[in-house]
TrEMBL record:
<dbReference type="InterPro" id="IPR001763">
    <property type="entry name" value="Rhodanese-like_dom"/>
</dbReference>
<dbReference type="InterPro" id="IPR036388">
    <property type="entry name" value="WH-like_DNA-bd_sf"/>
</dbReference>
<protein>
    <submittedName>
        <fullName>ArsR family transcriptional regulator</fullName>
    </submittedName>
</protein>
<feature type="domain" description="Rhodanese">
    <location>
        <begin position="130"/>
        <end position="219"/>
    </location>
</feature>
<dbReference type="InterPro" id="IPR051011">
    <property type="entry name" value="Metal_resp_trans_reg"/>
</dbReference>
<dbReference type="InterPro" id="IPR036873">
    <property type="entry name" value="Rhodanese-like_dom_sf"/>
</dbReference>
<keyword id="KW-0238">DNA-binding</keyword>
<dbReference type="InterPro" id="IPR001845">
    <property type="entry name" value="HTH_ArsR_DNA-bd_dom"/>
</dbReference>
<dbReference type="InterPro" id="IPR005471">
    <property type="entry name" value="Tscrpt_reg_IclR_N"/>
</dbReference>
<dbReference type="InterPro" id="IPR001307">
    <property type="entry name" value="Thiosulphate_STrfase_CS"/>
</dbReference>
<keyword id="KW-0805">Transcription regulation</keyword>
<dbReference type="InterPro" id="IPR011991">
    <property type="entry name" value="ArsR-like_HTH"/>
</dbReference>
<feature type="domain" description="HTH arsR-type">
    <location>
        <begin position="6"/>
        <end position="100"/>
    </location>
</feature>
<keyword id="KW-0804">Transcription</keyword>
<dbReference type="InterPro" id="IPR036390">
    <property type="entry name" value="WH_DNA-bd_sf"/>
</dbReference>
<dbReference type="Pfam" id="PF00581">
    <property type="entry name" value="Rhodanese"/>
</dbReference>
<dbReference type="Pfam" id="PF09339">
    <property type="entry name" value="HTH_IclR"/>
</dbReference>
Length: 220
């Protein structure tokens, strides 16, 4: 086989993988699976799809190696494949941000003040965690938190925040985070906390990016 033929074979495989990801529903499903192992019924609910439609997309992702399955009784549970799937998702987000910086501005504008200039980077947060000078607040649903979260994070789902404010310390800055850079749960949480007098910022990225970077996570 010539060098050109080898390249074509290799790039054909690249193109096949790219075609698999060329569907917003599949990327949405991958984003939810990145939060933790789930059955198709739950993934369909989270993604706004029918179970049949979600199942078709998941089978396509499985054939390409993006997800894998295991049986738990009568349930089939989906998790990310063994390869660098999180890194691929993170790279897609990075490229989208680079090409379409207005997406982040649009999200910030739609939620009012509290844009990315007031967010905290992963690097800065890592240092603050070493200093024990922040309270980490995970505002994702409890099922996602239990499958993996930032070390020492307190879980108060976004819809419960107003009635559970007493659980938050008043003497430390609160860093809220959710799934990823475009998840608005943390934006809303920061706005609610500031309106109650708390010092709060959001993690600019989120749990998926933290995990993709190989940083330590905990599980309950």
């Amino acid at each position: 086989m010539t060098d050109t033929e080898t390249q074509i074979t290799m790039f054909t495989e690249f193109a096949d993988l790219a075609r698999t990801l060329g569907n917003a529903h599949r990327i949405t499903l991958l984003d939810h699976i990145a939060q933790g192992e789930r059955p198709v019924e739950r993934l369909a609910e989270l993604s706004g799809l029918t179970v049949g439609n979600a199942s078709q997309h998941l089978q396509t992702l499985k054939r390409a190696g993006f997800v894998r399955t295991r049986r738990n009784g009568k349930q089939i549970l989906y998790s990310l494949g063994d390869g660098p799937v999180l890194a691929v998702l993170a790279s897609l987000r990075d490229l989208a941000e680079f090409n379409h910086g207005q997406i982040r501005a649009l999200v910030a504008d739609s939620r009012g003040p509290g844009n990315d200039s007031e967010g905290i980077s992963q690097a800065e947060l890592t240092l603050r965690m070493q200093e024990n000078s922040v309270t980490l607040l995970d505002v994702r649903p409890e099922e996602e938190y239990r499958q993996g979260h930032l070390p020492g994070a307190l879980n108060i789902p976004a819809e419960e925040l107003e009635r559970r404010l007493s659980e938050l310390p008043a003497n430390l800055e609160i860093i809220a985070y959710c799934r990823g850079p475009y998840c608005v749960l943390s934006v809303d949480a920061v706005a609610a906390l500031r309106s109650r007098g708390y010092t709060a910022r959001r993690l600019k990225t989120g749990f998926t990016n933290w995990k993709a970077a190989g940083l330590h996570i905990e599980q309950d």
